[in-house]
């Protein structure tokens, strides 16, 4: 390795250390949470990339919840077989509910980005492993027909009952139903901009597919994005641990990664 590269790496390590000291209070809060989680999910003490910390501004901050729906979060949903273990491990549903309650109490705008598929969508859906699962189980399948094909009532695409009163309070902003994992075809970006939002607290389902896609799309549009690590979950399959895959990417890409307890305290202060 030439001298210039060695010097660059030394500067990077020094910068990372300085930022780590700035974020020490947040990190100490996070370490309190480590007692109850899988050791595989604990942040290494030897993190190399320089961390960043969001300076939250209430007048430009929003909570965005991805897929708070029965098929993703409920034992009665068709996705429970692949998501349930991770949801129970992280108390995902309870943490999302805590975030919503805090946002409502603090009058922080709340947005819900949700997906609905119907018979017409399934006809043109590409053949991939996750799409095959969606089609095979009819995950978040709208039961209506024609112009009502995206109707989520009385279906697994409906919102989790515990969250529904907060989502349907005529204050939470609902996006157009999505047909994919990210924001292609969604009006979330437009609605965020209409509210002068610049910072997003991101949570919801599922971690390495939908939430990861939202993170990338929001960053690409110039938003600051912090992900709430225990207010999401991922499929645990022979193919791999979807939550761990997402967590690694969150560490690389997000402006900050929070625990629920930590970010609620930050929002309140």
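^ structure tokens above, recovered residues below v
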């Amino acid at each position: 390795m030439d001298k210039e590269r060695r010097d660059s790496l030394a500067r990077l390590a020094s910068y990372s250390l300085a930022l780590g000291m700035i974020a020490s209070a947040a990190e100490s809060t996070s370490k309190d949470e480590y007692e109850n989680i899988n050791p595989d999910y604990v942040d290494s003490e030897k993190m190399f990339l320089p961390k960043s910390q969001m300076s939250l501004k209430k007048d430009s901050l929003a909570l965005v919840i991805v897929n708070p729906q029965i098929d993703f979060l409920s034992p009665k949903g068709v996705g429970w077989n692949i998501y349930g273990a991770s949801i129970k491990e992280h108390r995902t549903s309870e943490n999302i509910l805590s975030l919503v309650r805090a946002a409502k109490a603090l009058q922080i705008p709340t947005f819900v980005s949700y997906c609905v598929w119907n018979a017409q969508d399934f006809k043109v859906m590409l053949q991939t492993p996750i799409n095959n699962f969606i089609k095979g189980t009819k995950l978040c399948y709208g039961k209506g027909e024609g112009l009502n094909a995206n109707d989520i009532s009385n279906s697994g695409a409906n919102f989790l009952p515990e969250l529904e009163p907060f989502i349907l309070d005529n204050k939470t902003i609902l996006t157009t139903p999505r047909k994919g994992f990210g924001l292609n075809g969604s009006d979330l970006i437009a609605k965020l901009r209409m509210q002068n939002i610049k910072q997003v607290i991101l949570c919801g389902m599922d971690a390495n597919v939908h939430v990861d896609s939202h993170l990338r799309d929001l960053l690409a549009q110039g938003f600051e994005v912090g992900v709430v690590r225990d207010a999401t979950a991922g499929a645990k399959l022979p193919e791999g641990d979807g939550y761990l895959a997402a967590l690694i990417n969150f560490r690389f890409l997000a402006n900050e990664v929070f625990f629920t307890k930590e970010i609620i305290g930050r929002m309140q202060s």
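The radius of gyration is 19 Å.
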